[in-house]
Amino acid sequence: MTKDLVCGMDIDEKTAAKKEHNGKTYHFCSPTCQWAFEMDPEQFIQKET
User: Fold this and answer.
1) Domain boundaries in the chain?
2) The TRASH domain covers which part of the protein (predicted)?
């Protein structure tokens, strides 16, 4: 399990939407969260650290 950086939902990496950014793969619960990440990835990556 992993967390969607956008909404915080716990998700299964095997079934989640995926997006690679700067060599790291991020997982999302829905296309909407993936879209939000694509619009401003740094906003969400900063929350991760």
Assistant:
1) 2-48
2) 4-41
Q: Which two tokens stand for residue 7?
A: 């909404």
User: Taking the model in full, what pTM does it have?
Assistant: 0.84
CATH number of 2-48: 2.30.170
Q: Computed over its alpha carbons, how large is the radius of gyration of the chain?
A: 10
Contacts of residue 34, defined as CB under 8 A and 6 or more positions apart, other chains included, come to 6, 17, 19, 28
As averages over each run of 10 residues, the pLDDT of the chain (49 residues) reads 94 93 95 96 83
**Helix, strand, coil fractions of the chain, as percent rounded to 5:** 35, 30, 35
